[in-house]
Amino acid sequence: MEFTVIEGDIADQSADALVNAAGTSLQMGSGVAGALRRGAHGPINDEAVSKGPVDLGAVAVTDAYELDAEHVIHAAAMPHYGDGRATTESIREATENTLERADELGCESLVVPILGTGAAGFDFETGAQIVCEAIWQYGPDTLDDVRVIAYSTPEYETVQEIADRLESNDDQQE
C-alpha cells in the first residue's frame, strides 16, 4: 500500500473515499467537516446526521455528492458530549475503523486528515503520530493509495517528518 503525505484542502482531493474528522453526532460543523459539507453541494450533513449518533471511534458512510469521490467516511474521533475532547484511543479506533470500512467498500484510494485535532483539542503532532502509525500498520485488502492530508505547510512538514520516521524505522527492522 502506498502511503503518502499531501498538503491542501480535503474537499479538492480525488479518491474513492474522503474521510471526515467527525464527532459522534455526525453533525458537520467547521474544519474538515465544513470543507467537505461546502464542497459536496448536497444534503451530506442531513445524510450523515441520519446515521448518527455513533459510538466514539466508530464510522458511518455517506455519498460524496459533488466531491470527487464515491464515499465520505465520517470517523468519530471526537465526542459531541461532555468535554468534546478526542483521546489516543478514539483517534486510533476511528483511524482503524476507517481503513477497515474503506476496504469493505472496495476502495483503492483514500484521503485521511489528522483525526481528533482542531476542534477536538488533541495535540496535532501526537494525533498525527497515532493516525500515521495506524495506517502504517494496516494490512489492506483493496486499499493501495492512502494519502494523509494536512491543511497548512507547518502541519504538512510535521506529518511528513512522522511518515519519514516510520519508514526509516521499518527499513531498520528489515
UniProtKB/TrEMBL annotation:
Pfam families: Macro (PF01661)
Organism domain of life: Archaea
Domain Macro residues, every copy: 1-167
Native organism taxonomy: Archaea, Methanobacteriati, Methanobacteriota, Stenosarchaea group, Halobacteria
Entries under InterPro entries matching the protein: Macro_dom, Macro_dom-like
Coiled coil: none
Leader sequence segment: none
Organism of provenance: Halorientalis regularis
Protein name, entry field: O-acetyl-ADP-ribose deacetylase (Regulator of RNase III), contains Macro domain
